[in-house]
Design brief:
With about 100 residues, the chain is an alpha+beta fold. The chain has two helices and six strands, in the order H-E-E-H-E-E-E-E.
């Protein structure tokens, strides 16, 4: 079992870019290696299925979300019309 040192939102923003995916949840930095081809193919199939029932403008692929307790970047997400554009701000804070 490893022990992680919590990091702040500001420290998360200042991390250098690296391959793979990073999320921050309750101060814990979660890192994954780049996804394998099979994983991407499955995500793409879900994207195609979602687009048959949800308008394309509401389906997002690997979009990051700043949450109260951190930053999450799901493979796929669906947004609702009332969600603010700020939900899609990149780590740098630009829209």
């Amino acid at each position: 079992m490893s022990v992680t040192t919590p990091i702040s939102w500001q420290e998360f923003l200042e991390l250098e870019d690296a391959p793979g995916k990073r999320e921050l949840l309750d101060g814990e930095l979660i890192e994954w290696p780049p996804a394998k081809t099979t994983h991407k193919e499955i995500a793409k199939r879900f994207l195609v299925l979602l687009q048959t029932v949800v308008p394309l403008s509401r389906v997002w692929f690997e979009t990051g979300y700043q949450m109260t307790k951190g930053w999450l970047q799901p493979d796929l997400s669906v947004t609702w019309p009332e969600q603010l554009r700020e939900c899609f701000a990149r780590r740098t804070g630009s829209a």
